[in-house]
Amino acid sequence: MMTENFQSYNTIVAMTPEKESGISKKQNLTDSSSQNNGEDGDLDTKNQNGNHSNVHAREICRRGSFERAYVTLKDLGLLDREVAITQKLFKEDILRLYPLSPKDLEILTIMRLFDSKTLLHSIETYVTAKKKVERPLESGSTFLDMLTREGILPEQFWRACLFHDIGKVVIPKFLLNSNYTDENWAQAFIQLSKRKAFSLMKKYSISIPHELLDDPGTLMEHMIRNRIRGARFVPIKTLFSKKQIKLLESKKFSANMSLIDIMQKHEKESEKILDFMGYPVEAKIAGLHHNYQVANLNIKKNICSCSVNDKNLASDIIHLADIQEALRSNRPYLSQRPVLKTLAFMVDDAKRGLVNCFVTYLWIKDDMQKIDSKYLDIVLNHSEDDPEYGHLRDRKIELHTIQEFLTETERNLKLPC
Predict the structure, then answer these.
(1) How many Å from the N-terminal Cα to the C-terminal Cα in the chain?
(2) How many structural domains does the chain have?
(3) Are residues 299 and 193 in the same domain?
(4) 7, burial (CB in 10 Å: exposed 0-12, middle 13-18, buried 19+)
(5) Residue 87 in contact with residue 94, Cβ under 8 Å?
(6) Is the Cβ–Cβ distance between 142 and 134 less than 8 Å?
(7) Structural domain harbouring 230
């Protein structure tokens, strides 16, 4: 949950993901166990009852093709056994989900064999989305009501949400579970030549004052404070080893691609997989949950729309739930973010046209009502003498970004649609 019961801002800042969202203890086990660039330490190699996952089954699921893995596991008679292990290992987590069909359990099992962290993230994204869509908004209506009006059945939405990231099976695990943070990527950008930096800024439409390129310290601060993620545009070859780059190139990924460039491949792969499994509606929803096509064309989608009638509501909700879950969790490549920073990231995506502005407005306004007003007062009225000045200063900037977005959207709501 994002609710911040006011005690002190130090307590709020220090909230752990377990306290904040109820993530199962398994997630901490998986996060702490993976120390070898994400290749080892999966939770379910051996569970507490001594059940072993078939090493060959795991290797099959890491070859980069869901369809081939599914058919091969079936042909070898391994899939049913692995499904049973999934049901034992994740019994408590599965109880939090909608009633899974046999095919759903098979998809979940292949996801587990590929990467249990991705499975847990998917479950938590589902839980986040479910709480949000069932919660009455200010108008008394719910997102679930809106989805029904779009003709989306609840089970279709739940399934698309749970399997929105199944396409990550095409992404090498060392990328998914790398330990590089936004600070690491910013530092990698700083170390590039000016010529290369300018080239990347132009290619990816990154707005950074040119004079900051001569001031590394200020540039780092500017990138972090303004949520300019180097992982979006810095070539992966700047941080990953030659051995890792060679592996990527063997999978048809260029060393000049950014981490986000590569990660984008999973969206359409999720669509392809769900369609292969006989879920065409869910496939379309999952295939738009990041709206990467819009991002890559540098165009804007319904920025000033005052309705949710863009036929992408289900995808937009998954997009926002995905952001919220990913940024509030301690992950190898992304440390836990304060709530206001998470909401500011949502604003960024709405302004870039990656998610419907009005849907984002409804989501953020609902979340802002959960944050204690005393905390917000501290953020807005702190002094430079405050021992937490740096933290509070950044939160104030984010709060202003959020408030400006809400005000602008409310202004648009008063205009003819």
Answers:
(1) 33
(2) 3
(3) no
(4) exposed
(5) yes
(6) yes
(7) 179-239
For residue 395, what are its two tokens? 């939160």
Indicate the SS3 state at residue 235.
Answer: strand
CA atoms within 13 A on the CB side of 296: 10
Calculate the alpha carbon distances from 306 to 320, 408, 412, 415 in Å.
Answer: 18, 11, 7, 8
In terms of pTM, does the model score above 0.85?
no
Residues 152 and 220 in one domain: no
Q: Cβ(171)–Cβ(248) under 8 Å?
A: no
Lookup: tokens for 389 = 């000045």
Neighbours of 330 (CB within 10 A): 16
pLDDT in tens, 143-185: 999 999 999 999 999 999 999 999 999 999 999 888 899 999 9
Residues 122 and 108 in one domain: no
Beta bridge partners of 371: 4
Q: Which of 241, 348, 387, 361 lies closest to 308, judged by CA?
A: 361
Q: How confident is the model at residue 22 (pLDDT cuts 50, 70, 90)?
A: very low
CA triplet 388, 394, 397: central angle to 5 degrees?
Answer: 135
Residue 63 DSSP class: S
Distance CA 373, CA 207 (A): 33
- Helix and strand numbers (H, E) in the chain are 25, 0
Q: Which two tokens stand for residue 246?
A: 């060679």
% of the chain residues with pLDDT over 70: 80
The pLDDT confidence band at residue 200, using thresholds 50, 70 and 90, is: very high
